[in-house]
Amino acid sequence: MRITCIAEERGQGLLCSTHQARRPHYSVFHDAERLSDRENQLDAYHPAFQTTDPTTTDDANDEEEKAESVEPAGVRASASGAVEDAIAFITVLGWPPATARAAVEHVCHALARAGSRQSAFEVLRRDKHSRALLDLPGTSWTALLRALLGNPAPGVSATSAGRGILLRLLIGETLPVLLHDDDLVLAVSMAAPKRGGGGR
Predict the structure, then answer these.
(1) pLDDT means over runs of 10, the chain (200 residues)
(2) CA distance readout (Å), 39 to 29, 33, 43, 178, 193
(3) 139 to each of 125, 142, 145, 191, how far by Cα in Å?
């Protein structure tokens, strides 16, 4: 009875079942904690999560401008800026602007829901409904997902191909750097849907 009570308590802390909490490979983890319970808030983890108060004074704005001039431009990259840059990158390589915007925004929404790039890739790869709404052939859709989210193959996760356009933009790479990546440019431009409608 005592072991069951201990396992039940561990299961509540780990947010798993009592059966899993009894297993040694689960019980070694620490209890789940909310990010809001930590002293460091979300904006301390990445600049993309930082926001500014629109009611700040001019003096505060001047101080921020001075700080920005000292920091590299890529460090202050925002998520919305990365999305816009990704859309511009794909459009430059022959994708219709409306299709590029709709596809990138859809991928970003799915990524936010899935929580990880690999999960989002797998969900979107099988999403025939979205692909049909965007009027994209399967090869174009898969190539776009691979370009935006990175190649999910385990052997390339630490490479540029494994990171994908969105992550590369968020960590400070710029459009000119991406445009010098010959493999990426070739993959995105070859995947551009042909004028006159996509295929199935």
Answers:
(1) 73 73 66 60 57 52 46 52 88 90 89 82 86 87 88 75 83 86 89 63
(2) 21, 12, 11, 36, 48
(3) 10, 5, 10, 7
Contact 95, 189 (CB under 8 A): no
**DSSP letter at 194?**
P
Residue pair 65/154 in contact (Cβ under 8 Å)? The answer is no
- pTM exceeds 0.85, yes or no: no
Q: Are 134 and 102 in contact (CB under 8 A)?
A: yes
CB 77 within 8 A of CB 94: no
Cβ-proximal residues to 13 (8 Å cutoff; 6+ apart), any chain: 31, 32
Name every residue whose Cβ is closer than 8 Å to that of residue 180 and which is 6 or more positions away in sequence.
Answer: none
* Contact call for residues 107 and 148 (beta carbons, < 8 A): yes
What is the C-alpha to C-alpha distance for residues 185 and 143, in angstroms, rounded to an integer? 11
Residue count (the chain): 200
